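Researcher: Let's do a round of design. I'm pasting the structure tokens now; please hold your answer until I've finished.
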């Protein structure tokens, strides 16, 4: 028998004597015990439930009843309870027996959310059995078929160390280069982000157009901040004045489509301290680090139910300052933390949660135009 102690609610000790019910418990073997309880005390309900449950269906509960003014205790298993007498009488609701269904197909289904979270927990426990759990490979590029088999299909992130070796951008791009060659071009960026923690959710309200040279000055003179950033949804690669930047980058022919689709490419540029909040992408992505460094915190899809998701793709959890008091489930999170440096390419699989912080003034490019199936709309 598994002992599950059931003890008296501590609030009973402060109750007025006139409110208490005298309860006489009669056990098998002729034993008796008298206690005083409030009519709505959880223990009283537990006792009546044990009395009305058939022995073969009763759980292995061990009742713990204080005696001798709390100096001692009486322990007995639920099936040992024979009868209960109360003074005054206590009204006990008798549960109705469920009516048999005429058709087995009419049985109400279980809660699918509960089963989904249960299954995600299983997947996560299985993932942790790997001796390499929580470690990302940093490797030279592999063939397209090998990438598909080892990483893409398995939904496994990886960092490639040589995919950008032939990029002119590696030697050309920096803030001064942007200002000198493209400072006259009007670009889009987000501002006043620190006034609203949901700046990505309300991104249109934070969007502003300005000269590229003016934005470069802000980045170089403003120090570390998250108040402004040229990030997702800016559409700057599609601006006529920036088309020259496309000549400085090369596609990965075995992983990407053979066209530089400006609608499926993003230019990221901002100061140290710029943050992309916790979210996941609904498709696979390559993040290519050209200049500066970024710290990336990754969380596998199997832990999605711990992240208080909203708006399909976002979480209001801040991994920079996790609130364990409000979100105690965060203590169960397994976070993979890594630094992506210049010349490195991170493959971010669909569904993987990530929060990114620029550690320096940073320039990145991301590609969404993968050569494999990359449409996962619900």
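Researcher: That's everything. Go ahead.
Model: Designed sequence:
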């Amino acid at each position: 028998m598994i002992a599950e102690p059931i003890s008296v609610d501590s609030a009973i000790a402060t109750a007025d004597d006139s409110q208490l019910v005298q309860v006489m418990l009669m056990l098998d073997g002729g034993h008796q015990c008298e206690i005083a309880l409030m009519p709505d005390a959880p223990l009283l309900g537990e006792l009546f439930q044990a009395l009305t449950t058939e022995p073969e269906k009763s759980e292995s509960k061990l009742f713990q009843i204080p005696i001798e003014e709390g100096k001692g205790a009486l322990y007995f298993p639920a099936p040992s309870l024979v009868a209960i007498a109360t003074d005054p009488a206590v009204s006990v609701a008798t549960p109705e027996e469920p009516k048999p269904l005429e058709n087995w197909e009419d049985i109400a289904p279980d809660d699918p959310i509960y089963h989904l979270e249960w299954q995600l927990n299983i997947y996560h426990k299985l993932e942790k059995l790997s001796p390499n759990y929580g470690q990302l490979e940093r490797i030279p590029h592999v063939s397209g078929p090998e990438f598909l088999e080892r990483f893409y299909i398995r939904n496994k992130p990886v960092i490639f160390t040589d995919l950008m070796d032939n990029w002119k951008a590696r030697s050309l791009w920096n803030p001064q280069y942007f200002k000198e060659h493209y400072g006259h071009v009007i670009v889009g960026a987000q501002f006043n982000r620190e006034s609203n923690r949901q700046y990505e959710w309300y991104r249109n309200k934070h969007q502003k157009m300005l000269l590229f040279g003016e934005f470069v000055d802000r980045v170089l003179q403003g120090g570390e901040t998250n108040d402004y950033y040229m990030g997702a949804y800016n559409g700057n690669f599609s601006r006529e004045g920036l088309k020259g930047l496309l000549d400085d980058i090369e596609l990965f022919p075995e992983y990407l489509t053979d066209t530089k689709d400006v609608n499926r490419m993003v230019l990221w540029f901002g100061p140290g301290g710029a943050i992309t909040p916790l979210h996941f992408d609904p498709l696979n992505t390559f993040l290519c680090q050209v200049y500066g460094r970024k710290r990336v915190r990754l969380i596998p899809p199997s832990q999605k139910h711990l992240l208080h998701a909203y708006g399909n793709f976002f979480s209001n959890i801040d991994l920079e300052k996790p609130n364990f008091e409000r979100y105690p489930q965060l203590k169960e999170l397994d976070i993979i933390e890594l630094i992506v440096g210049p010349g490195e390419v991170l493959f971010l699989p669909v569904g993987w949660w990530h929060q990114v912080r620029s550690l320096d003034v940073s320039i990145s490019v991301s590609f969404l135009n993968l050569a494999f199936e990359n449409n996962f709309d619900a």
